[in-house]
Amino acid sequence: MDNYYNWCLKLKENWQLKDVEQIMELFDEKVEYYETPTMKINTIQEVKQMWEEIESQNTDNIEFNIICQNHECCIVNFILKEKISYDMIYQIKLNNEKTIYSNSVSGSCKFNC
To answer: Is the pTM of this model over 0.90?
Structure first.
């Protein structure tokens, strides 16, 4: 189950580096990706376009906490702290170290610090 921790750590590190190409290496070509509980991103190219938005973010302060996990999936909380902070909870499923399913359990909550 260290796979989930390692995956989240790689995502965090590459997010902080704003390395979209390395982030995309974490996702399977046929990933089922939801940015919000009802907003499905249909193609890997659209997932990449969504991640390109990190260029405008201050990514110095990102945290994650795995809330629970089992052999099928994990629930992870990512927090991006900047002037407006983002608190996101995702369900992640892996297959051979790549994400095959990512769903925002709560959507993204924004709050001012």
So the answer is: no
